[in-house]
């Protein structure tokens, strides 16, 4: 029994660094971004088909509007499935200056997933 517990523990221990390394790789692509806010996701709705959800975050698809607890919104600019109940989202942004005008590239981090967003 002790050997089985040791094997299970070692398996979990050895697999943990791989997951962390994957997230570190994702984060390394975000050099230059700054944390703008951290908010709770309270709802979402799809701009075109009227589908919506309260409480449960079901990831992003193009045009999905994410509603935060303070009633501010961001719109998904990519697809990615994830399920979480009222998760905290960290909003990050990077200024991009083009022809003398500054625009911002927004991303939303939920758990270990990173989504392209737009205002």
Helix content: 10-25%
What does the main sheet amount to? 6 strands, antiparallel, barrel
Strand elements, count: 9
The secondary-structure element order is HEEEEEEEEE
Quote the beta fraction: over 45%
Total number of helices: 1
Q: Please list the strands of the largest sheet in the order they lie side by side.
A: 1-4-5-9-8-7
Nearest-angstrom radius of gyration?
18 Å
Distance separating the two termini: 55 Å
Account of the protein in words:
Helix content is 23%, strand content 47%. The protein has 119 residues and is of the alpha+beta class. The protein has two domains: 31 residues; 87 residues. The strands form two sheets. Strands 1-4-5-9-8-7 form a six-stranded antiparallel β-barrel. The chain has a two-stranded antiparallel ribbon with strand order 3-6. A hairpin with a 5-residue loop joins strand 1 and strand 2. It is globular and about 35 Å long. The N terminus is likely disordered.
Short description:
Keywords: Signal. With 119 residues, the chain is α+β, with helices and mostly antiparallel strands.
List keywords for this structure.
single chain; 119 residues; alpha+beta; 2 domains; 6-stranded antiparallel β-barrel; two-stranded antiparallel sheet; 9 strands; disordered N terminus; signal
């Amino acid at each position: 029994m002790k050997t089985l517990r040791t094997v299970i523990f070692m398996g979990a221990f050895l697999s943990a660094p791989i997951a962390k390394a994957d997230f570190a790789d994702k984060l390394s692509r975000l050099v230059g971004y700054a944390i703008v806010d951290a908010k709770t996701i309270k709802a979402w709705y799809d701009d075109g088909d009227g589908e919506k959800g309260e409480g449960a975050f079901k990831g992003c698809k193009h045009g999905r509007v994410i509603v935060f607890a303070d009633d501010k919104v961001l719109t998904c600019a990519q697809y990615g499935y994830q399920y979480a109940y009222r998760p905290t989202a960290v909003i990050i942004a990077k200024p991009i200056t083009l022809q003398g005008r500054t625009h911002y590239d927004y991303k939303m981090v939920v758990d270990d997933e990173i989504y392209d967003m737009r205002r």
